Amino acid sequence: MAQDAELDLVEISPNASPPVCKIIDYKKFLYEQKKRQKEMKSKAVKVIIKEIRFGPNTDDHDYEFKLKHAQKFIAEGSKIKSYVFFKGRSILFKDKGQILLLKFAQALEEIATVESMPKMEGKRMIMMIAPKKKK
Fold it and tell me: How far apart are CA 105 and CA 82, in angstroms?
């Protein structure tokens, strides 16, 4: 039947009993399959991570400036990786860094959730913040 119609006999599901086959144009089938996969890939959600860096002695004005940027990033749907970078002897102020990050998270709690609490990684204290899910 496939040869009479000048088409291909394609096995759709070989594990079924009996196996399922279709008489179709195989090149067109592959093209449409690639097209479907490309469309699904374009609809997939891409997670963007923005970084915001603080020092342990970040001033109030700088903090407010970075907070406004963070609010804008969260409104766009991006995740935020905020961290306090300790240089040289400033590593003595770990508690200041942690307080700063917790204050930052508290300021954003209405529009975002904390994914991971502040933790030290080398000379950085890192905290991840994600936007809240919309209902």
Answer: 9
Tokens 């963070």 belong to residue: 70
| Confidence at residue 34, expressed as pLDDT on a 0 to 100 scale | 95
Q: What's the mean pLDDT in 41-58? A: 86
Q: Which CATH number does 49-131 carry?
A: 3.30.110.10
Q: Which residue has the higher pLDDT, 45 or 66?
A: 66
- 47 CA to centre of own chain: 2
- By CB atoms closer than 10 A (0-12, 13-18, 19+), residue 60 is exposed
pLDDT at 73: 92
Which amino acid type is present at position 66? K
89 C-beta neighbours (distance < 10 Å), count: 7
Q: Name, in order, each residue with C-beta under 8 angstroms of 127's C-beta and a sequence gap of 6 or more.
A: 81, 82, 83, 101, 104, 105, 114, 116, 117, 118, 119
What is d(CA 67, CA 55) in angstroms, rounded to the nearest whole number?
A: 14
Mean pLDDT over 60-87 rounds to 92
